[in-house]
Amino acid sequence: MTVDYEDQRSEVAYFMRRLYRQGLTTTSGGNLSCRVGEDVVLLTASKSDKAELRADQVLLMSLDGDNLSPELVPSIESSMHLSIYRARPDVTAIVHAHPPHASAFCATRVPVNTHLTAEGYAILGDPVFVPYACMGSENLAQRVATGVKNGALCALMENHGVLAVGDSLLQAFDRLEVLELAAKHTLWVSQIGSKIELDEDRLVELDRLMGR
User: Fold this and answer.
1) d(CA 2, CA 177)
2) pLDDT along the chain (212 residues), means of 10
3) Is residue 50 part of a domain?
């Protein structure tokens, strides 16, 4: 009997629509995925309207890259998702998007400062910066997988966009949303001209709280 993963596909479509409603991506930008079991990945299809994405526009792929929904065209970033899952067995969901403030930091060498609020650091830790590679390329897939391999929860891709990983779509979505808020905080605090950052003791305390 063929498994259709209807509930999981509906969840992927829901979070993509939510991502668009929150202004965290564009109609054509971004992609979401989740891993079901050890070797099946659900991924948003290419050339779909992110604002109106339906469950039947979410395809199934094997972890080896075989398209199990041949009627749909995979996102050009499918290899990036698969590479992350291979590098991080603990990750079961990925959200990639182009939130305006966090993406602006992808075009600078200024890091998004997650040490400004306890929530920001607790939820995100320190984001990683991934050097540029052409979108959709195997080079980008490998660079992002390497960037998050050692436990990073989110990444900023140079001149591209951002992504967050998690053990559920809700967790990955939350991390991307908090990353966008942390980017706003970084920008606003720089304009104010004075800041109080979490010191080392407070960072260690938060790491302990979050089990890191």
Assistant:
1) 35
2) 80 96 92 93 92 94 94 94 96 97 96 98 97 96 96 97 97 98 97 94 97 92
3) yes
Query: Would residue 47 count as lying in a domain?
Result: yes
Residue 3: CA count within 13 A, CB half-sphere = 11
Known catalytic residue at 71: no
What's the one-letter identity of residue 64?
D
Check if the beta carbon of residue 198 is closer than 8 Å to that of residue 121: yes
Report the alpha-carbon distance of residue 119 to residue 180 in Å, rounded: 13
Q: Which domain holds residue 122?
A: 6-209
Q: Classify residue 1: in a domain, yes or no.
A: no
**pTM, 2 dp:** 0.95
Beta carbons within 10 angstroms of residue 122's beta carbon: 18
Instruction: Residue 184: give its domain's CATH number.
Output: 3.40.225.10
Residue type, 21: R
**Catalytic residue chosen out of the listed positions 52, 71, 77, 158:** 77
Counting the structural domains of the chain, the total is 1
